[in-house]
Structure formats: C-alpha cells, structure tokens
Amino acid sequence: TYVVTDNCIRCKYTDCVEVCPVDCFYEGENMLVIHPDECIDCGVCEPECPAEAIKPDTEPEMETWVEFNRKFSEAWPNITTRRDPPEDAEKFDGEAGKLEKYFS
Ligand code: SF4
Ligand code: F3S
C-alpha cells in the first residue's frame, strides 16, 4: 500500500485524489489519508504530490503511518475531486514536526 505522511499537513494540495483509480483517499481538516486496504498499490499518486508526502509502505518504519492512515480513513469522508489548497500551503512544505504542531 501507499500512505500519506506528515508533509501533507497544511499543504493538502489534493492533486493525488484525481489520479487514484480506486478513489481511496479520505479527507481530514488539514490532511488526507489513504485507506490501506483499498489501495491497489498502483503508485500513480506518489509523483503527483507536490509535497512528496505519499510514500510506499516498503520504506523503513512505515508501520505507524499505515496504522495512522487506516484509523483516519475509517473516520473521515471520501474525497475524489481536487480542491484549492490552503493559500499558505507553500509556507508549510517541508516544515519539521507538523504532526505535533498542527494535526487536527
Ligand atoms: Fe490510489 Fe494507486 Fe495511490 Fe493507492 S497507490 S492511493 S490505488 S493512486
Ligand atoms: Fe496531501 Fe500531497 Fe495529496 S499534499 S493532499 S498527499 S497531493
């Protein structure tokens, strides 16, 4: 599976949702997640993210992100069409500690 990681927070570009063949993105207030059981591992969303927030679970230490994505995809609504990102999205791209600072 692929998962969304913390650099999505407050960037939320949503380019990813347009390309997913199985529509498995879910939307929280300031980030998206992927449902790990619905993702078919096609990989097309990964290069679409301007913030490079989407990663395959084959990268080291991704278990926590898989669980995070599962938990919130079961609580949040599905999103299938792109939205305008926050006006200050660029400012947050690459900032450290976003999960602790901003996740809501
Ligand atoms: Fe969707 Fe493919 Fe990305 Fe999985 S890897 S979330 S199926 S676009
Ligand atoms: Fe987030 Fe990147 Fe999608 S910033 S909303 S994972 S395009």
Automatic annotation (TrEMBL):
<comment type="function">
    <text>Ferredoxins are iron-sulfur proteins that transfer electrons in a wide variety of metabolic reactions.</text>
</comment>
<keyword id="KW-0408">Iron</keyword>
<dbReference type="GO" id="GO:0046872">
    <property type="term" value="F:metal ion binding"/>
</dbReference>
<dbReference type="InterPro" id="IPR054829">
    <property type="entry name" value="FdxA"/>
</dbReference>
<dbReference type="GO" id="GO:0051538">
    <property type="term" value="F:3 iron, 4 sulfur cluster binding"/>
</dbReference>
<keyword id="KW-0004">4Fe-4S</keyword>
<feature type="compositionally biased region" description="Basic and acidic residues">
    <location>
        <begin position="81"/>
        <end position="103"/>
    </location>
</feature>
<dbReference type="InterPro" id="IPR017896">
    <property type="entry name" value="4Fe4S_Fe-S-bd"/>
</dbReference>
<feature type="region of interest" description="Disordered">
    <location>
        <begin position="77"/>
        <end position="104"/>
    </location>
</feature>
<keyword id="KW-0411">Iron-sulfur</keyword>
<feature type="domain" description="4Fe-4S ferredoxin-type">
    <location>
        <begin position="30"/>
        <end position="59"/>
    </location>
</feature>
<dbReference type="InterPro" id="IPR050294">
    <property type="entry name" value="RnfB_subfamily"/>
</dbReference>
<dbReference type="GO" id="GO:0051539">
    <property type="term" value="F:4 iron, 4 sulfur cluster binding"/>
</dbReference>
<dbReference type="InterPro" id="IPR000813">
    <property type="entry name" value="7Fe_ferredoxin"/>
</dbReference>
<dbReference type="GO" id="GO:0009055">
    <property type="term" value="F:electron transfer activity"/>
</dbReference>
<dbReference type="Pfam" id="PF11953">
    <property type="entry name" value="DUF3470"/>
</dbReference>
<protein>
    <recommendedName>
        <fullName>Ferredoxin</fullName>
    </recommendedName>
</protein>
<dbReference type="Pfam" id="PF00037">
    <property type="entry name" value="Fer4"/>
</dbReference>
<dbReference type="InterPro" id="IPR022569">
    <property type="entry name" value="Fd_C"/>
</dbReference>
<keyword id="KW-0813">Transport</keyword>
<keyword id="KW-0249">Electron transport</keyword>
<keyword id="KW-0677">Repeat</keyword>
<feature type="domain" description="4Fe-4S ferredoxin-type">
    <location>
        <begin position="1"/>
        <end position="29"/>
    </location>
</feature>
<keyword id="KW-0479">Metal-binding</keyword>
<keyword id="KW-0003">3Fe-4S</keyword>
<dbReference type="InterPro" id="IPR017900">
    <property type="entry name" value="4Fe4S_Fe_S_CS"/>
</dbReference>
